[in-house]
Amino acid sequence: MGKQIHELSGPKGLPVFGNIFRLDLPKIHQQIENWADEYGDVYCLDLFKISQLVVTRPSLIQAIANERPHLFKRSGKLDQVIREGGVHGVFNAEGDDWYRYRSVVTKGLDVKHQQAFYPDLVEKVSILYQKWKHDADSGEVTDIQKDLLRFTVDITTLLAFGYDIDTMRKEGGVIQDHLEVIFPTLFKRINSPISWHNYFKTNQDKRFDQAVQEMKKIVDVFISEAQERLQSNPSLKESPRNLLESILVAAEEEQRFSIDEIRGNLMTLLMAGEDTTAHTLTWLIFLLLDKPDAIEMIREEADRVIGEAPFSEVYSQNQQLKYAEAAASESLRFKPVAPILLYEALDDVELEGITISKGQRILTQYRHAALKDIYFSYGKEFIPDRWINRERCPVHDTKAYTPFGSGPRYCPGRNLAYLEIRAIISMLYKNFDVELIEDENVEEVMAFTMMASSLKVKLKNRNYGTDN
Ligand code: HEM
Which of 413, 397, 428 is nearest to 333 (CA)? Predict the structure, then answer.
């Protein structure tokens, strides 16, 4: 008989309310780490009558993630909150729905589609390059985070819907504005023990409802336009060019998708692909601020692979940018943008001596382990090289590294994210020096994704250290 959850140690809370008033949502990922230091890598967190199992031990995180979908599912609260926001897609679906959605989404994100999509990505990289060149020439401050969020919205909308929304060249009234309302509200609701918004609506709740409605309208226009395209050009059904067309074709075949399911999956992709990639890039640029050696390596690689051009226009070149990719992998070890995953047990099970009952809520956080020497040599040092060769860093336990999750629900957008990251990072450092503006205080803030509070910099045209 394993240990019951309530027998595990953990932070002492108030009677009934537990630790609910101690939670500091924007810093919750750090609180989880601090408690893991105190109570170990598996502990009990009492929250308003609910004993939550908290896991930072890599082997147990893997076991839970891998035993999906039959033994564990995503948290029911997360599903409820996402559905209330009018979204039901591959991220929150379970059972048959999940299987159906996952196969279409995975196909739409495969290498073949990415390769075909690369020219569109290059065009967006070019717009960002022009913007940053202008900032560097004029000495204007660059809001890196804002620029990258717009870049990733444009990319994801193009890939998912085949529609160029062009937020990078617009101000206001764009998808990004709606997402900025939607994400923090979802996060607050997921972590609130009582669904207050069902009883009375704050201004934030009202803005959320409005943003969701606006997003639905936008997505519905995309859907009807794609339906018309497929009707007037049936040959598209043989080789759909984007995810929306793939889903519509699948909807006509045996895997029927209702209009709500089509919309739900498109909104899911937009939400899953935009914030995560933009904040990962932002964190990488932040971490590189004081790593001149790593920047030199990124530059040397970009100059060698790309040559004279300011950025790569060739898919195969992008694939060769291995050091830029390694820097991104290392950055995700320090600054994972989705550090916390929430699960619920679907049955009684005993894992690593712990008795988990059906319905048990579980929170996993992987960064706590990923920075330890027992899993990665010199765990607290930023060493991109460890992802290329193991000589200097022999301890390299990827079980302790799950920024894209693990098991059957592993992130299907990982390769697209790396494609974007390699393209942007090589372009940035090939052309510019990056300096943090004075008094910029960059902190970790958890708001659905773990993001930087802000990242404003001065870009300077690259100093080659010679006369050229
Ligand atoms: C650096 C960027 C990204 C990070 C760190 C990231 C991270 C994650 C994580 C941790 C999960 C949960 C996995 C699990 O439960 O085991 C996930 C799921 C998912 N991600 Fe990503 N993601 C990124 C980019 C993207 C992109 C670009 C897309 C697509 C456009 C995407 C689409 C999805 C989808 C659809 C799921 C749900 C998969 C399922 O439940 O079956 N992600 N991602």
Answer: 397
